[in-house]
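Why run this: before we spend reagent on co-expression, it is cheaper to look at a predicted model of the complex and decide which construct boundaries make sense. The entries below are exactly what would go into the expression plan.
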Amino acid sequence: MLRQVELALGDCYHCGLPTPVGSQYMADLNGESRDFCCPACLTVAQIIVDSGLSSFYSQQTPSGIAVASSIASEEFSLFDDSDFQQQFVSVLAGGLRSCTLLIEGMHCTACVWLLEKYLMALPGMEAAHISFTEQRAELRWQGEQLSLAAIAAAVAALGYRAQAYCMDNLSRSRTAEQRLAMRRLGVAGIGMMQVTMFAIALYAGALQGIAQEYRDFMRWVSLLVATPVVFYSAKGFFIGAWRGLKVAQPGMDLPVATAIGLAYIASCRATLAGTGEVYFDAVTMFTFLLLGARYLEMRARHYSGRISSDLSSLLPSTVTRVLSGANAAYQSVALASVVVGDLLLIKPGHIVAADGHVSAGSSHVSEAALSGEFMPLAKVVGDTLTAGSLNGDGALTLRVEATGPALKLQAIAALLARGQAKKPGLSLLADRYASIFVAGILLLSALSYGYWRWFATAQSGHEAFWIMLSVLVVSCPCALSLATPAALTIAGNRLRDEGLLVTDGQVWEKLPTITDVVFDKTGTLTKGQLSLVGKRLLSNVNEQRCDQIAGALEQYSSHPIASVLAALAATALASDINLQGGCGVEGTVDGKRYRIGRSDYACALYGATAEPAPDSGQWVLLSGDQGPLCWYELQDQLRDDAPALLERLHERGLKTHILSGDSSAQVALLADRLAVDHVVAGASAETKLDYVQTLQNSGAKVLMLGDGINDIPVLAGADISIAMDAASNLAKTQADCISLSSGLLTLDSLLDMATRTRRIIRQNICWAVGYNLVAIPLAAMALIAPYVAALGMSISSLVVVLNALRLQRLGRRWFASNSVEHMQ
Amino acid sequence: MNSIFILVPIALLLTAVAIWAFLWAVDNRQYDDLDAAAQSILFDEDPVARAEDKSA
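The model came back. Tokens follow.
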């Protein structure tokens, strides 16, 4: 019995990819029927639900889980290899083993929960601790009950990928840096709370009178608590300031260190002498706020850094070697042990691990990773294969001709270096101004000390010192040095909620100057996967019947086009199938012969040469023995929000470009539809980089969006680059921003936020400068009591932070109205 | 008012304990992953285990 199948698109319940409703992969989970895009997702979902972990689906973020892939279990035998065990597994007392694995594919904290629960349920597992931030799992298990290969297989069963984790120096130093920052921040926070509490007593005392002994006691206690904050928490500022001085390039650390150092010394002096004012509260609060901003900044930086930046991480770590000899035997080996001349078996769906020629088998191979061209190419015996490309439907035997540094993939690395070298240099303008400001203040306080000491005879030397301190403290560059980071931190957090991670602070500075936006096509403006967009009937056979025939035939092919059309029919009725690689499928449905595929192939069934396609799109023809039946149009679909984004970019007066590795007419069609200003089709990684550099040489500031490995050099070379959600890890490490959701409109949010942030920063700097212009002369004229100066310093910093907080509010209102607009 | 000469040192002692506890927690990797811990509370307990608890 046949079910009518509509081409309505739902989402795969597991990975969220668009899936035809009523696809052949359905399962009843907890009493509800769910659709899946592929059998692998279905299997994973079944495992999750059967293990009682179904709340995973209610907690995971909607941006999509790594698509499950089914991997045969022999892949994991390497984990039990004795060499491997010796290197990575440590044996503990009582038969316990421990090992750290790198887990790939975790995209949200729900994944952590799922993996921990699932792994802990394995018999013999003692402890499974998974860190999302570091993307790794620390495991402890009973060696007799459980093998590492079984653990790796369990991880893979959920759709993640386990790899041996070898802690390199970079990640070790990152962990150390992160912990040190946390320790300093914590000590500063606890210290600040205590000192502020004592300060409230002191301020109240200053207003309504306090006995000398209590006041001095409070000051001594404040000194005691503030000391570790200054010497431990603020140590980084002092070291940074000293380093800057040594190379004669004082940065923002110098004013900060000067302020903290002098305010602390003055307060100590006042405490010891029992006269004057103390500023311990301002010192600790300022230290804490700055450390907090720096900590958040560091986390964003580490996020992009934690993903492997090594090109070879694109290749599988284990491969299947074909052993020479009469009986074809296979062996799982590490990629590193493969040498030129080896034969490797590349299974369907696997990544080609080395450069070479096909020595047996035939398949379709996608070189999207290298060329950006995502339509698979047919490969038969004698054709070349390039490492990094993805094998499609058939198994291939590869004769290895190059491995390691000799791979063509490494050519990308050379281009990358070129892109990075051309990257416009850091602008340290704000820091330079701050240095001048600090030098000016130091000079001014020295002058006022000199004046009051030697010219104003009414004052003694002791009072002149306090006036000098008032000048220093009241002018504290805190507000000035907090003005920018406070705004940047808040804007960055706001955008992270929105699905865009800014990993380089320069983005904010450069965004308002952008003149050109360059897009990659596949995977950036489009979704990067084919779907059925149109049909054209050519005979009196009705549409439903055509769909049934097409679906029935395509069941037997695993070409990407076939998988789209196969979803048209729920049951297979065809028999006597003949697959013609690169052409199409022929088969018998209800006693009649039909063909589906390329026009010339399909027409040959009824004796014609070829039927012209309706237009320049990508069409597949279904024909019977009497004549053609129906055209099907397939297209890589545009992301839903692409037209809206392009419209807004044009409204902003930005020029738009498409640089696509795709050389088909599709590129021009798409550019036409989106009214993009300039289009380059068939561009290689090198052409792309050249194009962007030519733009830059003519004075343009370029924002680049891309995702593929062929986009990496150009991402590195552009003024600002954004890597899409699905981008390769390497592309992400080269980008200044990473899109965490699949929406394109976040780019518009980013541009908007950048304008707002710049406005807030200007306001903050105006306030800080204006405050200093008023307060410094007053202090130099000895009109400001030191405790008022300390209060002024705290309040000016608070004003700056509160003003920056408005970014959060403004952002929210803007996003709310924006999303409503978008929905309409 | 003389009580502050006792109370404040006690507060300082507690502060020292708080700092020690914090540093201990950092060294014991409690702060290494701030993302997962923040959301773990939102997850229900394993429903299978809960059902077994009830029947037991």
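DSSP finds 27 helices and 31 strands in chain A. The radius of gyration of chain A is 33 Å. Bring this page to Monday's planning discussion.
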